[in-house]
Design brief:
about 300 residues; alpha+beta; six-stranded antiparallel β-sheet
């Protein structure tokens, strides 16, 4: 009966809704083995706004589920309230989840500042490439009980993203270290640059292989990793949680480095030497450059894809 019902459901959704089906409350054997034409699956209990003990567990459950479900289904981390006290906490988790994003705020109660960091100006989500999974050093730990930070990693083409959460109920602050080993799916590259969103700190990973991150209860951090390609590392849009998810392509053209972005915003990169000029859509752009750190940042107009050219 279950097999026949599932087949009929998928056939109906394929005919009437272009295959747009969310498998909710489906983490049983039937959901795993009978989902032939649908891949989106809720992998945790619901979002409970009135239960403080549920938020860290919600994230941990989805990250653990992604280890197995993520091999053949797309884990869906469920909806959340952007205006909730844990709104940004949940939003960062969705940014690294690799899955779809939904919010269930009441009408007129959305937190636009949180939502804008998840999406582009056309409303599309900056999704990572794979299901979010636990970093190796917390694979056998329970961050809700063991006094360690929850760490979830993902990848955007050749770049990486790592989210850290204080998922426990205790009041003590917890410290963990960030390294390239936290994102084991990164491709081999001569060197990487990392940037921490909350700390607003940029560093070279070969010079600082372990960087401490300290978080209090319900706090979070998200770190982007970008490979250095002949003296340039593109960290994407710094005003988005998943900053490198906005990068479409990058390449050298003679003495210039071309970067295609999915939208405008706060462009962030590391460069070995100050460029002579930066242009966007053939218009010269003012930029800031820190000689000590190699940090380069400029504002690009939003409203659609942007082509940036760094010239030396």
């Amino acid at each position: 009966m279950t097999k026949a019902s599932k087949a009929a459901l998928e056939a109906s959704v394929g005919k009437h809704f272009d295959g747009r089906l969310i498998n909710c409350m489906s983490c049983g054997s039937e959901g795993a083995y009978l989902s032939h034409d649908s891949v989106v699956m809720r992998t945790s209990d619901d979002f409970f706004p009135q239960r403080p003990d549920s938020h860290g567990l919600h994230l941990f459950t989805n990250a653990v589920a992604g280890l197995w479900w993520g091999e053949f289904m797309l884990p869906d981390w469920d909806m959340f309230h952007s205006s909730h006290s844990h709104g940004a906490f949940h939003a960062v988790a969705r940014a690294v989840s690799g899955g779809p994003v939904y919010v269930s705020d009441g009408i007129g109660m959305h937190d636009a500042a949180v939502l804008r960091k998840l999406v582009l100006s056309d409303g599309s989500v900056l999704r990572a490439d794979f299901p979010g999974r636990l970093s190796p050093d917390v694979l056998m730990a329970d961050p809700t009980q063991d006094g360690v930070l929850l760490k979830v990693f993902n990848r955007n083409q050749v770049s990486g993203v790592l989210a850290l959460f204080h998922a426990g109920l205790g009041t003590e602050r917890l410290v963990s270290h960030v390294s390239l080993a936290d994102v084991p799916v990164l491709p081999t590259a001569p060197a990487y640059v990392a940037w921490a969103h909350q700390l607003d700190r940029l560093w070279l990973c070969d010079e600082e292989p372990l960087v401490p991150v300290e978080l209090g209860p319900a706090q979070w951090e998200i770190v982007s990793f970008a490979p250095i390609e002949q003296g340039v590392a593109v960290l994407g849009l710094a005003d988005k949680y998943n900053s490198t998810g906005a990068v479409v392509s990058r390449r050298w053209i003679g003495a210039s480095y071309e970067v295609l972005l999915r939208d405008g915003g706060e462009f962030l990169a590391w460069v070995w030497q100050k460029p002579v000029e930066i242009s966007c859509e053939d218009m010269q752009v003012r930029y800031d450059f820190d000689e000590q750190t190699g940090r380069l940042q400029c504002h690009l107009p939003c409203g659609g894809p942007r082509k940036v050219l760094l010239s030396w």
